[in-house]
Amino acid sequence: MKTVHQSENPLDAAEPFMLTGLLANYNKFEMHNQYRVRFADFVNDETMTRVVESVAWTCTLLRSKYIAIQDDTPVGWSVAGTLSYVGLGALAGAKPAAPGLTEEQQRELFNEQPGPETSTLLTLYDFTLANKLFCHHFVSQDSSDRAQPPPFSAFLSFASYLHQHAFRSARASLYAYLTLLILVVLSEDAKIAKLMCETTAQVRLCRQRPPQLPLPKTADRPYATAILDLLADGISHNLRKRLDVPFYIQTLSVLSRLLEYLAKSRTKLSHHWSELWRSLLSFVRFLNQYADELNMLGASEVAQALVDILVQALTNGEAFLPENKDYDDLFYKLVESGEALTKLRDAYSLAKPQDQHAVNTLIGVSTHYADLIESHRARKEHLSPKEIHKIIKQGYETLNIEPKEDAEPVDAFREADHKVKLKQVARVAVADATVLVSSDRQRMQ
């Protein structure tokens, strides 16, 4: 950490920071590790600032490699700004995408991502888990260069590219999983969650593959809403018959923690909530379509987590949705999804029809409104979407849903539950660190 503190260039601090993380992970589940203790005790603000800056520039470097393959720059963004730091261009090995790359060439290059510098994320995870002061620095720190986004924005931006391409390799999937663990740790701490809701910045999210979420209405927005988009994108872009079950479980875990904080604190964020509902309910249909294959992968846990989030939104939505139309839209989409929810319950054996279970709560709401709509259709055959929304509002009066205020909170994060995955990440990080050290030696010769 002394070397990190003395580094003039934030990217020069990346390797000693990475080495600290590798040492902290050496047999950490089998023996007492002094490096991990040091993370917890660390209080030097200036060094933490240097660490966060180093993480930011590393994330910018890693993201630039994705953009070099396929430039997805939205109108109003500048690629040149991402490589403006002195020395970054040479280290990045990435330039704006050359014209004429075929789809096959792009695919091969994407399969090689993320760069070996991603091994730094392992240290970031350990520091985040061990030190709340560092978490505060990480989320709140502003950029030291006005041309660059704040560090946490850079992290979320790189994570979005990583998540959108996580399906391409086991290595990319493991690193994506690690970023989700970092977000789990941050979002389950109420003070940090509050900070993520209150701190605004511009966050560039990956737009390299359809479907694409709408661009935010304002350039600066709360980090929490960028995370919601990051999660929705991750859900939509990794749908495969061989579903990455651990990735989806952690994605839903982050989402559950964020929604729980928003509901408890009654924080109402302006956001395109309808896109989140659409992503979640499209995921329900995907799980139904490939139920036979996915059941063999243990996807019933994913199905249960998905149902729990939908019930969480349904029962507590009034506490965190800023406008009635956002809440109405959720009900409307649930009405449309009644058959799909019933199929999900049966395909994954979530409950029996008579059980008091979350999935039956959703099905009950859908049935309640479907019956109301049919009764209106008996008087008028064709109902417009506006009329259906009006029926949904009227239906609140006869709908009985108990808010989940007294429900058990989401289980606290336990690192031991992720022991196998973290050991896999550590092995990948060691291999990547070896690549970096070897390339450094070659440059010095």
Task: Characterise this structure.
With 445 residues, this protein is mainly alpha-helical. The chain folds into two domains: 1-200 and 419-445, no CATH class; 239-413, no CATH class. Helices cover 64% and strands 1% of the residues. The chain is built from 21 helices and two strands. It has helices at 2-6, 14-24, 34-41, 45-69, 88-92, 103-111, 120-130, 132-140, 151-164, 170-187, 190-198, 223-237, 245-265, 273-289, 291-295, 300-320, 324-336, 338-347, 358-377, 385-395, 419-444, and strands spanning 200-201, 221-222. The longest helix has 26 residues, at 419-444. It is elongated and about 80 Å long.
Q: What sequence of helices (H) and strands (E) makes up the elements?
A: HHHHHHHHHHHEEHHHHHHHHHH
Our Rg estimate from Cα atoms comes to 23 Å
Shape type = elongated
Number of domains: 2
Uncertain ranges: 78-95
Main sheet, how many strands, which sense, barrel?
2 strands, antiparallel
Strand segment count: 2
User: Can you give the mean pLDDT?
Assistant: 88
Helix content: 55-70%
Organism: Hortaea werneckii
Pfam family, one: ARMH3_C
Domain Armadillo-like helical: 214-437
InterPro entries: ARMD3-like, ARMH3_C
